Amino acid sequence: MPPYIDLHTHSTCSDGLLTPTALLDLAARRGLAAIALTDHDTVTGVAEALAHGTIVGVEVLSGIEISSDLAGTSLHILGYGFDHEHPGLLAFLARLQEARHNRNQGIMERLRTLGISITNEELTRIAGEQIGRPHFARLLTQKGLARNSQDAFSRYLKRGAPAFVEHIKPQADEVISQISKANGLAVLAHPVYLIPSLEQNPGLVATLKEYGLAGLETFYPTHSKKFSRFLQALAAQHGLLLSGGTDYHGDTHSVTPLGGNAKTIRVPLQLLQEIKQRLAATNAAPHREAAHLFL
Q1: Which of 62, 134, 160, 185 has the lowest tally of Cβ within 10 angstroms?
Q2: How far apart (Å, rounded) are the C-alpha atoms in residues 175 and 132?
Q3: Could you please report the per-residue DSSP string of 181-226?
Q4: DSSP state, residue 157
Q5: Predicted model pTM
C-alpha cells in the first residue's frame, strides 16, 4: 500500500476525542506516513504531537484551523508548517480564546434563562483546555436534555436556536497574514461548504490568493469526485497547492476513519512533499511578504 497522509485532524486540545499522543498512536497503527494536527484556534497540542510523532515514526506537520469572515461569508482557514511558538501568532490566538470564552459565557446565560444550569466546571471535565459548542452538546446529552449531540444542536445551539450566540470571527485576510508571518502556509478548508458562495462570487479564491492563500483542501470526505476535480482545476488556475484530510475528531464523532480508506478518501504523500517544498521556497525568499506575490 502506498503511503498516505491526513492533514486535517483534531485532538482533545479542541473538540476531538483523542489526545495528541493517542491520535499519533492511531495514525501509526493505520500506517499513515504523516498527519497535521489542526485544532480549532489553538496550537497547544502541537508540541506533544511533534514529540510523539518521532517516537511512533509518523511525521507531524504543525497545523491549526481558524474560523474567519470574508464579507459575511464564514471561512475556515487551515495553517500548515508554521512556527507554533511564534509570539505574534500566540498573541493573536489569545485574542481568539478570549472571544471564545465570552461566547461560552453567553451560551451559559441563555441556557440559564431556559432553566438549564451548566457550569464551567462541568464543561471543563468534558472539554479540557478549550470549550466549544460540541462540549455543550455532549453535556446537554449527559443531562438527559437531548437525545444526542445533533439533537442538542437542533434544540439549543445551532443558529436560530434559543441558546445560540454568534461567534465573533477575525477577518480572513488577518488570519492568512498571521499564519504567513509565523512562516506557515494558509489553506482554505472544506470548500464544499462554500459552494453557494463560490457560485455567487467566482472571484472568492482570487481574493483569498491576493491575501496570501497558498492552497485548497481538495480531498475531503464529503467532496464528490466531480467537485474535487473542479477544485484541482481551480488550484491549477491560481497556482495553489492541494491539500486533504478527513477532519477526524474521533471514531464516534467521525464517519470517516483517520487517514480515510478505499471507500472514502486517500490523501497521497506527494501533497505533503509539495507543501514542504513551497514552505522551503517561501521561507528562503529574502522578503517574505514579497514572496506572497508568487503563491
Answers
A1: 160
A2: 20
A3: HTT-EEEE--GGGGHHHHHH-TTHHHHHHHHT--EEEEE-TT--HH
A4: I
A5: 0.91
Assess contact for 245 and 38: CB atoms under 8 A: yes
Backbone φ, ψ for residue 193 (5° rounding): -80, -5
- Which residues are CB-neighbours of 85 under 8 A, at least 6 positions away? none
Place of cell 461548504: 193
CA distance 224 to 138: 30
Q: Are 67 and 93 in contact (CB under 8 A)?
A: no
CA distance from start to end of the chain: 32
Q: What is the pLDDT of residue 252?
A: 82
| pLDDT tens figures, 98-141 | 999 999 999 999 999 999 999 999 999 888 778 989 999 999 99
| 8 Å CB contact between 287 and 293 | no
Q: Please count the other Cβ atoms lying within 10 Å of the Cβ belonging to residue 74.
A: 14
